[in-house]
């Protein structure tokens, strides 16, 4: 295979990320699982490759000279699994997307949840958006059951922190919304919003993600998607640099439609 603009050796997991196969961490897992070969031999962690090396994933040849990385925002409908493939044959989010080689979801939304989900061919972007050290905020609109709507004092418990089975969980903010709450998190544990609200006696009946980093869902309908441009990608990673008028317009548009 041919490489990019340099013939210098490169770590295999970085090459796989650049090709849009997976994030660097996920690429390492593929290597450990024995799913990667280099020049016909099973790859090992720490392996370096050059542009002339033939790299295959599950027997499929990888071409890092393919089209530039692309990133989409999808309004994930309920009932879709956030995975590239599902062993039980359930619909995945890739079934809602165009057939772009290397496209994979960024992070997760559980099967029953809806809303903003990113999909990209850029493995490094996936790492920057999912690694805990970057702490990208996520905003969720929850509709709940239970005895009335969550009260401000109950939601304050989410901000103080609740002990869950996997440790203390704390919302950056939690405020009332008609029929439920609007919750902002700085982390993304499995079904965290659902578990936190259930802990205060208000099980979630519908959950919709409205924002990730500096990107709002806007009026994108269920199952609809669009490609992000370079400006949106920058705002996604650097929310503090989004112009105030742009932020306020996108927030108002999103909350008017979904809040």
Secondary-structure blueprint of this entry?
Blueprint: E1 10-11, H1 12-18, H2 24-32, E2 36-38, E3 41-42, E4 48-49, E5 55-57, E6 60-61, E7 71-76, E8 104-106, E9 114-120, H3 123-130, E10 138-144, H4 152-160, E11 162-164, E12 167-169, E13 173-177, E14 180-185, H5 192-199, E15 204-212, E16 215-216, E17 225-227, H6 230-237, H7 244-258
Helix pairs in contact: 1-2
Description:
The structure is a single chain. By secondary structure, this protein is α+β, with helices and mostly antiparallel strands. Mean pLDDT is 89; it is low at 1-6. β11 and β12 (167-169) form a beta hairpin. The protein has 7 helices and 17 strands. The protein folds into 3 domains: 10-61, RNA-binding S4 domain (Structural Genomics Hypothetical 15.5 Kd Protein In mrcA-pckA Intergenic Region, Chain A, Roll), CATH 3.10.290.10; 71-132 and 213-258, Pseudouridine synthase I, catalytic domain, N-terminal subdomain (Alpha-Beta Plaits, 2-Layer Sandwich); 137-212, 2-Layer Sandwich (Alpha-Beta Plaits). α1 crosses α2. Strands 7, 8, 9, 10, 13, 14, 15, 16 and 17 form a 9-stranded mixed β-sheet that branches. The chain has a 4-stranded antiparallel β-sheet with strand order 3-2-5-6, with no helix packed on it. A two-stranded antiparallel sheet has the order 1-4.
Query: What percent of residues are in strands?
Result: 25-35%
- Report the CATH architecture of the largest domain: 2-Layer Sandwich
Give the SSE order as H and E letters.
Answer: EHHEEEEEEEEHEHEEEEHEEEHH
CATH level 3 topology of the largest domain: Alpha-Beta Plaits
- Counting DSSP E segments of at least 2 residues, the number of strands comes to 17
CATH class group of the largest domain? Alpha Beta
Euclidean distance between termini CA atoms: 49 Å
CATH level-4 homologous superfamily of the largest domain: Pseudouridine synthase I, catalytic domain, N-terminal subdomain
Average pLDDT taken over every residue? 89
Overall 3D form: elongated
Gyration radius (Cα, Å) is 20 Å
The number of helices is 7
Helical proportion, percent range: 10-25%
């Amino acid at each position: 295979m041919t490489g990019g603009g340099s013939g210098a050796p490169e770590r295999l997991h970085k090459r796989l990320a650049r090709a849009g196969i997976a994030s660097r961490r996920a690429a390492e897992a593929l290597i450990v699982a024995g799913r990667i070969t280099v020049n016909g031999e099973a790859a090992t962690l720490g392996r370096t490759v050059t542009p002339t090396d033939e790299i295959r994933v599950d027997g499929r040849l990888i071409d890092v000279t393919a089209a530039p990385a692309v990133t989409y925002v999808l309004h994930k409908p309920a009932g879709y699994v956030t995975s590239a493939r599902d062993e039980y044959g359930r619909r995945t989010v890739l079934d809602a997307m165009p057939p772009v080689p290397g496209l994979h979801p960024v992070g997760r939304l559980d099967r029953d949840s809806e809303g903003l989900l990113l999909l990209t061919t850029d493995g490094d972007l996936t790492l920057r958006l999912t690694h805990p050290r970057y702490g990208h905020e996520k905003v969720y609109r929850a509709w709940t059951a239970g005895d009335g709507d969550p009260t401000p004092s109950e939601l304050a418990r989410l901000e103080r922190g609740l002990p869950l089975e996997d440790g203390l969980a704390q919302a950056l903010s939690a405020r009332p919304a008609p029929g439920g709450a609007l919750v902002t998190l700085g982390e993304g544990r499995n079904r965290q919003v659902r578990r936190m609200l259930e802990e205060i006696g208000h099980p979630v009946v519908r959950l919709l993600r409205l924002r990730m980093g500096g990107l709002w869902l806007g009026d994108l309908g269920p199952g609809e998607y669009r490609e992000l441009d370079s400006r949106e990608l920058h705002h996604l990673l650097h929310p503090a640099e989004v112009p105030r008028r742009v932020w306020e317009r996108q927030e108002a548009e999103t909350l008017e439609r979904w809040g």
